[in-house]
Design a protein that fits this description.
alpha/beta, eight-stranded mixed beta sheet
Length: 319
């Protein structure tokens, strides 16, 4: 955001100068650059609009552990009884508007959602996800996060969640893309989770310490992650752990976001998102007969092109 403000100021400065001091090349460069930033900043306007229209209570809470403070986005459902707390781990794009909108959507189903910004303190001027100048900068920063620091941040979020007065004491974890892998890893780290939900993320090298059931949600057009499922399944089985992976045929990596993006061109992403969300909510509510696609090689009714949408899609801006 700081970058955008400075760019706009610079652009206005050029406009106020006499035209003889501005070359046509400079004018074109600034125009293209400003438009590019504007397009990037609007890439998730649909998610922000839904978030702004939500009737649910949103707040930001500083979670302190050691010498570190993590900012978390917390959403409360409008319910009468105490609710399960879900720790939501964002994609490799940081705590974006979509991640917050996803948290709100889950809260609408009756759950308290705590979504920590795992880039807290690592951004420019000590900020978090929203302070980085570009999506690429966010991706690089998230990719470089220390696994032990991530688990410590998630521990702080889970500890906070367990003591929320409106919570029922149950804690589940879920994550997407990079966050999907981290949710699996957190299940191997934390012993008091009721469940872990892994959206298109790979499993940890050692699964023997996992105590919670793990439910996987995978895309059919995502060989990078799909290729890891057989080994993970074998390891979980050998360790006597509960692991239920479901693959949604035709969907691309990142289908939970892509499936609700108005610009999505793959109908299988929308179908996969709808089916996965129903399954997720049913599992969180303890409905053992949660509807699923075919396990292992799930089949959806949607016919889709072979192309996939990655969670590294450069068309999605970081907010």
């Amino acid at each position: 955001m700081f970058f955008v403000v400075r760019l706009v100021a610079c652009f206005r400065c050029y406009y106020t100068l006499p035209m003889k001091f501005m070359t046509l090349r400079a004018f074109r460069f600034l125009t293209v650059l400003l438009l590019a930033v504007a397009v990037s900043s609007q890439a998730q306007d649909w998610a922000k609009a839904r978030l702004d229209a939500s009737p649910r209570h949103h707040e930001y809470v500083p979670l302190k552990h050691g010498n570190r403070t993590v900012q978390a986005f917390v959403v409360y459902p409008e319910v009468k009884n105490k609710a399960t707390v879900v720790i939501l781990i964002h994609e490799i794009f940081g705590l974006s508007d979509w991640a917050k909108e996803m948290a709100d959507e889950l809260a609408a189903q009756g759950f308290i959602v705590v979504a920590p910004d795992l880039l807290s303190g690592f951004g420019p001027n000590g900020g978090g996800s929203s302070e980085f100048p570009s999506q690429d900068a966010v991706v690089k920063a998230v990719s470089g996060l220390d696994a032990d620091v991530v688990n410590a941040d998630l521990d702080a979020a889970a500890d906070y969640g367990k003591h929320i007065p409106a919570g029922n004491g149950k804690i589940a974890v879920m994550g997407f893309c990079w966050g999907g892998g981290k949710s699996f890893a957190f299940a191997a780290h934390r012993k008091d989770l009721s469940a872990a939900f892994v959206f298109y993320g790979s499993g940890p090298a050692d699964v023997t310490t996992i105590t919670a059931p793990v439910y996987g949600f995978y895309a059919g057009n995502d060989a990078r992650i799909g290729a890891t499922i057989p080994a993970t399944t074998a390891a979980m089985k050998a360790a006597g752990k509960t692991y239920e992976p479901v693959t949604y045929d035709g969907a691309g990596h990142g289908f939970m976001r892509a499936g609700e993006d108005p610009t999505n061109t793959n109908p299988a992403n929308k179908t996969a998102r709808e089916q996965a969300f129903v399954r997720l909510v049913a599992l969180l509510k303890g409905e053992k007969s949660a509807p699923t696609a075919k396990i292992g090689n799930a089949q959806s009714n949607a016919k889709a092109p072979a192309s996939s949408i990655s969670c590294h899609d450069t068309g999605m801006g970081t907010m």
